Structure formats: structure tokens, C-alpha cells
Amino acid sequence: MKLYGTSLSPFVRKVLVVLAEKGVEVRHVPLRFHDPDPRFRAASPFGKIPALEDEDFRLADSSAIIQYLERRHPEPALLPATARDLGRAIWFDELGDTELFPLLVKPFVQRVLRPRFMNQPCDEAAVARCMGEELPRLFDYLEGQIDGPFLVGGTFSLADISVVTGFHNLHLAGEAVDAGRWPRLSAYVAAILERPSFQAALSARQG
Q1: Cα dist. 28→13, 25, 53, 54, 73 in Å?
Q2: Do the beta carbons of residue 104 and residue 169 sit within 8 Å?
Q3: What's the pLDDT at 36?
Q4: What are the C-alpha distances in Å from 66 to residues 49, 50, 158, 177?
Q5: Across residues 90-106, what is the average pLDDT?
Q6: Which phi-psi region, left, alpha or beta, contains residue 53 (left: φ > 0; alpha: ψ -120 to 50)?
Q7: The model's pTM
Q8: Is 130 helix (H, G, I), strand (E, B) or coil?
Q9: Domains of the chain (ranges plus CATH)?
Q10: What is the per-residue pLDDT across 32-45, written as a single tens digit (0 to 9) for each?
Q11: Alpha-carbon gap, residue 149 to 63, rounded angstroms
Q12: Does residue 152 have a pLDDT over 70?
């Protein structure tokens, strides 16, 4: 099995965490998006990461890949069994992908990607606006959702993976959740990132 995509991507990181939780061995190929590698493009025709190659089967998109892996390697289960818990886990997966990711990645783009890979200056005003005006409403929401070590059903699941994966990019940009304002969220993110599966994903090659 091969997984294509740099571990700098929170979406690639999601899949790496799932693979580690399930104990599935994978060859990680840390390509960036739109890489011309023909095997990568066979799995991801539009050049997006991550992409998976499993024998003669190829698939792109982190959520699709995780659904595939959950059926292919069902233990330990990362999708809840009950209808309500499953619905909430999918909701948090969507929240992580479409609401959290675009904002958590803004400081990372400005402070890491622009100067390192684009030869462009950082826009600190954009970082300040993101941290001061855009992210707080999401942090407020998550603070109110956390009442234990995990988001759904009292056990680690896709919900936790999808919500927390982007916070590493925030940390790479030198920002973090204000523990004084959002104590539950701050402690929750720190604890999830310390899981062995997340530590393995964070140490994966960036490319």
C-alpha cells in the first residue's frame, strides 16, 4: 500500500493517523499537490493529496480513503456504531475539512508557505485577523462541545482526527489555542496530538 502526499497537509495527516491507529503498514511517498508523478496522477487525476494505491485499487480524497480503510481494516473501529454517534462523527469530519481547515491553515500559509516556498512576504495583518476575528467563533463552538477526552461516544474516532489535524499547522506557524480563554479546547488538542498515532504522522516525511 502507498500513500501519496506531504505530511505538511492536514488531509494527508488524517490518513496517516488512521493507518497508524489500525497498524497498517504503508509506503509513504511525500509528494506535493499537482506533482506530475504518473502513479500519483493515476490515483489522483486532479493532482490533489492525499491519494492511495492499494494493489490495483486507487483512490483520492482523505474522507473517501478513510471510509475505504475502515471497511478494509475494520479494527479498531474509527467510525462509531450507533446512528447518532456516526452522524456526529461525520459532522465533525465535515467541520474539520470545510470550516476549521481554511482558517487554521491561514497563519501557516502566511508564515511558512509564502516565505519558504513562494518567495513572498508574510501578511501579518491577515494572521492577526484570523486569530482575532475568524477563529474565535469556531473555538467557542468546540469549547462547548468538549466534555471529556473525545468528541463522540467516549472513544477516539474520526471526529477527533479530523478536528485536531489542522491544529498542527497552526502550531507550525507559531500560534496556539489560548488556554486562558478556551481551556478545554487547549487541553483536548494537546492530548490528541500526543497520541502515538499522531506522533507517527507528525514525524512522517514532508517531502
Answers
A1: 11, 9, 10, 12, 18
A2: yes
A3: 86
A4: 13, 11, 9, 27
A5: 97
A6: beta
A7: 0.94
A8: helix
A9: 2-77 (3.40.30.10), 83-201 (1.20.1050.10)
A10: 878 888 999 999 99
A11: 23
A12: yes
Q: Which long-range contacts (CB under 8 A, 24 or more apart) does 84-88 make?
A: 85/152, 85/153, 85/157, 88/151, 88/152, 88/153, 88/159
Q: What is the pLDDT of residues 53-96, one digit of tens each?
A: 999 999 999 999 999 999 999 999 999 999 999 999 999 999 99
- Are 91 and 38 contacting, i.e. CB atoms less than 8 angstroms apart? no
The candidate with the shortest Cα–Cα distance to 29, out of 21, 18, 15, is 15
Sign, CA dihedral 106-178-87-166, equals positive
Q: How many residues does the chain have?
A: 207
Give the C-alpha separation, 197 to 50, whole Å. 17
d(CA 197, CA 15): 10
Strand 2-4 relative to strand 27-29, pairing? parallel
Over residues 93-102, mean pLDDT: 97
